[in-house]
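I'm stuck. Protein, please.
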Amino acid sequence: MLVHLYQQSYPHPTAPVQECLEEIELPFLSEDLTKVMQSMRVGTNRIREIVLSLRNFSRLDEAEVKDVNIHEGIDSTLTILHNRLKTRAERPEIQTIKDYGNLPLVECYAGQLNQVFMNIISNAIDALEERDRQRLYKDIESNPSTISIRTEVTPNNGIGIYITDNGPGMQEQVRKRIFDPFFTTKPVGKGTGLGLSISYQIVTEKHGGKLWCNSSPGQGTQFIIEIPIKSLKT
C-alpha cells in the first residue's frame, strides 16, 4: 500500500529509482508478495491444525479414564493421516465419508482409543493403495477409493464405530487371523503384525468392549468397535 501511495504521489521517478524498479520487477514482486503471504497464512493454519490434532491424538496429559468426545479423536486421526489420503501423482484422493451420530461423551482412555483408530484407518489406506496400483487413474476417478466412518449409540448403552473401506477385502482364512500377534500379509519391513492385535487388547481389555471385522474378497472390509459409554474400569 505504501509503495502504491508513493507511486501516486511521484508518478515520474528519477532515473536511478526507475532503474531499481525495473531490476527488482516491482509489479511482479507486488503480485507475488500477496500470494506468498496468503500461502504463509494457509500454511500457518495447517501447522496449527496438525499441532492441535497431535495433542488431541496423544492425550499424554490424560492417562486416566476421562469423558471424551469420540468424534474429536477420529477427526484428529484423519488430520494426521491427511498426507496419506490426499491426491498423489499416481492416484486421486482417498475420500473419507463421515456419518456421525449424536454421541454423548464417553469414558475411555482417549490416547489408546485414538491409536486403535490410527491402526485401522492406516490398514484401510494400505489396502486401498495396494488395489489402486493395479487401476488406471481415470478408473479410480470414476470409482473412487473411500473410507467411511459411522458412529451411533447402541441399544446396550454403548457406542458403535464402523470403519469401512471399499478395498479388495480379504479371504476368510486371513480374516480369522488378523488379530493374532505378529500375523501380517504385508511384505517384510512394512508391517509388524502387532497393530490390530494391540488394538484388540485396547478395546476388549482396557475398555470392556468388542472389536471384530467383516470382510470378503472384492467386497471391502469393515471394522466394528463397540465400547460402553460408562467405563467398566472406574
User: Anything to note?
Assistant: DSSP finds nine helices and seven strands in the chain. Strands lie at 66-68, 95-99, 106-108, 146-154, 158-165, 210-215, 221-228. The mean pLDDT is 83.
